[in-house]
Design brief:
Elements lengths: L8 E4 L7 H7 L4 E5 L2 H5 L4 H9 L3 E5 L8 H13 L4 E6 L1 H15 L9 E2 L9 E5 L11 E5 L5 E5 L7 E4 L9 H20 L5 H23 L3 H21 L3 H13 L3 H16 L4 H10 L8 H19 L15 H8 L14 H13 L9
Parallel strand pairs: 1-9, 2-3, 2-4, 4-6, 5-8, 6-9
Antiparallel strand pairs: 7-8
Bound molecules: fe (ii) ion.
C-alpha cells in the first residue's frame, strides 16, 4: 500500500522569497524567529527577506548559531531563543542544517519530550508552530520533507519523521543560490541526486515518488555541471527545483544504503553530508545493481544513457556516468582523502544498521558487505568492483 500526503505549498521563481512578509501575515504571525547560519548572513541573502518581513509589519529575531549536522544543544538553544523572544512563527533560510534545526526546534516548542525521544516515525505528538522554509542550496529537500535529523551525544544522526515536520510553505528562489560556491553546488546537488536514485530503486513502491525521482534525475543530470561551473541562473534554478522534487520523492518512498552509510561518516568524521553521499553513491549503486537492475537502468536512462544492449549494460553505464560526474565536479575520490580514519569503521558499521533505510535497500546487506563498501570507498578502489 502507498500513500501521497504533501500538505506543503510550493512558491517558486526568481525573487519569490521577497513575498515572505505577506506569507507570515496570512499565517497570522507577528514575530518570527529566523533560523539561519553565518554563511547565509555574510552573503547578504537575508537582507531582502528581513525587509519583506518588516514591510509586512512582522517582527523578526535572528537565531544564527546553526552548526553543520545540528546537535541536541543547537536545537535546544533555538527552542529557548524562540520561547524567550515570544515568537509565534519560524522561518528557516539556509541549507539542510538550518531547515532541520528549525524543524527540530519547532518540535521541541510544542512537545515536552527530549528531541532524541522523538526519533523514528510518528513520535511528534503535537503540530509545530507555523514554519516556512527557504532553501539556499540545491540538495536537502528538507523544505518539503517530513523528516529532520539531529546528531545525538554518541554521534548518531537521529532521524525524526512526522507529517508535522513538513513546512507550511516552501519558497524556492533561485536568486539565493547565485553566490553558492561551486563545491557546494556539486556536493548538495549530488545529495539531491542520491535522494532521487535511492527513492526510485529501493523496495518501496510508489508511482508518484518514482515519477518525481525520474524527473529529478533527468534535471540534475543535465543541470549539475553548468550549475557548478558558476554564473548560470537557469541551471541553478533547475537544480533547486530538482532538489525539491527529489525531496518529495524520498518523503514518499524513503531512501537506501547510501544514506544509512553516509550518516555515520558525517556523525563520526564530520564529512559534509553531500560529499559523503557522492563518494558512496557509485559503490552502493554497483553493489545494489543485481537487486534491481531495471530500476538502475531507469536511472541510467534518466541520466541520458542510450543505445546500450540490455538492462544490465544500461544499468552499469549509469554507474559509470555517476563516477564520471563525481570526477568532473571535483568530488573527493575517497574517504581517505577527506580525513576519515579506518579505526572508525566498527562503530560506523554498527550505526549503519540502526537505519531504517537498510531494510528497504534493493539488495539484502550484511555487516561484511558494509565493511567491504567502506573499505573500498576509503581506499578509492573502482566502484565497479561489484559488477566487473
Ligand atoms: Fe541526503
Amino acid at each position: 500500500m502507498s500513500s501521497i500526503h504533501l500538505p506543503v505549498r510550493i512558491e517558486f521563481g526568481l525573487d519569490s522569497s521577497i513575498t515572505i512578509g505577506s506569507e507570515f501575515r496570512s499565517l497570522k504571525c507577528s514575530k518570527v524567529m529566523v533560523v539561519s547560519d553565518k554563511g547565509v548572513i555574510n552573503a547578504g541573502l537575508l537582507d531582502k527577506i528581513l525587509k519583506s518581513l518588516a514591510d509586512a509589519k512582522v517582527e523578526s529575531v535572528l537565531y544564527d548559531n546553526v552548526v553543520p549536522d545540528p546537535d541536541v544543544k543547537c536545537v535546544e538553544q533555538a527552542r529557548d531563543f524562540y520561547i524567550s523572544e515570544r515568537c509565534d512563527g519560524i522561518l528557516a533560510v539556509g541549507g539542510g542544517s538550518s531547515i532541520d534545526t528549525a524543524k527540530a526546534a519547532g518540535a521541541l516548542i510544542t512537545n515536552s519530550e527530549p528531541i532524541v525521544s522523538m526519533g523514528g516515525m510518528g513520535k511528534v505528538k503535537n503540530p509545530l508552530p507555523p514554519l516556512i522554509a527557504i532553501p539556499t542550496t540545491c540538495g536537502t529537500g528538507s523544505e518539503v520533507t517530513n523528516v529532520t535529523v539531529v546528531t545525538d551525544e554518541y554521534h548518531f544522526k537521529v532521524p525524526i519523521i512526522s507529517p508535522y515536520l513538513i513546512p507550511k510553505v516552501a519558497v524556492l528562489d533561485p536568486n539565493l543560490l547565485t553566490s553558492l560556491p561551486p563545491s557546494l553546488v556539486a556536493a548538495t546537488g549530488m545529495d539531491a541526486l542520491t535522494h532521487a536514485i535511492e527513492a526510485l530503486t529501493n523496495k518501496l513502491e510508489n508511482w508518484y515518488a518514482d515519477m518525481c525521482a525520474i524527473k529529478a534525475i533527468e534535471m540534475i543530470g543535465k543541470a549539475i555541471r553548468p550549475a557548478a561551473a558558476g554564473g548560470n541562473v537557469k541551471a541553478l534554478s533547475e537544480m533547486l527545483y530538482a532538489s525539491t522534487l527529489a525531496g518529495i520523492s524520498f518523503t514518499l518512498s524513503r531512501l537506501g544504503l547510501v544514506h544509512a552509510m553516509s550518516h555515520p561518516i558525517s556523525g563520526f568524521a564530520g564529512v559534509p553530508h553531500g560529499v559523503a553521499n557522492a563518494i558512496l553513491l557509485p559503490y552502493v549503486m554497483s553493489f545494489n545493481l543485481v537487486g534491481n537492475p531495471e530500476g538502475y537502468a531507469l536511472v541510467a536512462k534518466a541520466l541520458g544513457i542510450v543505445g546500450r544492449s540490455g538492462v544490465l549494460e544500461t544499468a552499469k553505464a549509469g554507474v559509470e556516468e555517476v563516477i564520471g560526474l563525481n570526477h568532473q565536479l571535483g568530488i573527493p575520490k575517497s574517504f581517505k582523502d577527506v580525513g576519515v580514519k579506518e579505526n572508525l569503521f566498527p562503530q560506523m558499521i554498527t550505526d549503519t544498521f540502526k537505519s531504517g533505510n537498510v531494510a528497504i535497500n534493493p539488495r539484502r546487506v550484511s555487516e561484511k558487505d558494509v565493511e567491504i563498501i567502506y573499505q573500498a570507498s576509503f581506499a578509492g578502489d573502482s566502484p565497479l568492483l561489484f559488477i566487473e
